[in-house]
Write a structure and sequence with these properties.
Layout (H helix, E strand, L loop, with lengths): L1 E8 L2 E7 L3 H13 L3 E12 L5 H9 L15 E9 L2 E4 L3 E3 L12 E5 L4 E11 L10 E9 L2 E2 L4 H8 L7 E4 L2 E4 L7 H10 L8 E12 L5 H24 L2
Antiparallel strand pairs: 1-2, 2-13, 3-8, 4-6, 4-8, 5-7, 9-13, 10-12, 11-12
């Protein structure tokens, strides 16, 4: 297996994974989204909430705030205390949440939570817990998707047909090679664009893919870096494989 970075912008990373199978890449995708533990606010002790926002809605907003996670120190089920105290008039932001542990903090400090009018008060004790995405979406560390690398070539007998075809697809997607049109950059070409191109091409055309090659797209929510997220997903699969081996020894 070989892994290469295609691009990285903000929290979105695209990787080229070669020499593997659909089943394996899909297993990594599922493990990354559903089985890698991260921190999220689970319990809220409300001492005072005189804002216009009801307790249930306030707790829901707090639970969806992404929290920076130190997965080398904290394991699934472990907890960290946080506090939130503000008095109006003001807007309460995520930066107003303070953690008892320096390594655990809300990632985005500018998320508005609620507005407090004069004499309105918010006094909360929060409990962040390490959990996994299969239990609730608030513990999902990111979005992971993959597609096969398209391998499309289109041959035309009539130059006019080729010109008409090129007018239907984005510029630069195809270039001429050996008397036919091939994808200029299969790795970066969206497979939907390639499929649409095949549909609009005259004659019997077929969308093909490069066997064993996939583009893995990972958008992390900030709790973990992309490399950490995929590394932990691989660890999850490795542990499950070890458990299976141990159980098989008992048969």
């Amino acid at each position: 297996m070989e892994v290469k970075k295609i691009s990285e912008k903000d929290n979105l990373t695209r990787l080229l994974v070669s020499g593997t199978s659909t089943a394996f890449v899909n297993s990594i995708r599922r493990a990354a989204m559903n089985s890698v533990p991260v921190m999220a606010i689970e319990n809220v002790l409300i001492y005072e909430n005189s804002s216009v926002m009801i307790d249930e809605q306030l707790c829901h907003r707090l639970s969806l705030l992404p929290i920076k996670t130190d997965n080398k120190v904290y394991k699934k089920g472990e907890k960290v205390k946080m506090v939130l105290e503000k008095e109006g008039p003001c807007t309460v932001y995520s930066k107003d949440i303070h953690s008892t542990e320096p390594s655990i903090e809300v990632i985005d400090k500018k998320v508005p939570i609620v507005k407090l009018a004069k004499n309105q008060t918010l006094k909360l004790e929060l409990e962040a817990i390490m959990g996994v995405g299969k239990e609730h979406a608030k513990w999902q560390p990111g979005l992971v998707a993959f597609n096969e690398v398209p391998d499309v070539s289109v041959r035309f007998a009539d130059p006019k047909e080729q010109k008409a075809f090129l007018a239907t697809v984005p510029e630069g997607v195809f270039h001429e090679k050996g008397g036919k049109l091939v994808l200029s950059d299969p790795v970066s070409t969206d497979i939907d664009v390639a499929a649409k191109a095949v549909e609009t091409a005259p004659g019997p055309q077929k969308l093909e893919t490069k066997e064993g090659s996939f583009v893995l797209s990972v958008e992390n929510f900030g709790q973990l870096e992309t490399n950490e997220l995929l590394f932990e997903a691989a660890n999850v699969l490795s542990e499950k494989a070890k458990q299976l081996k141990e159980e098989l020894k008992k048969i």
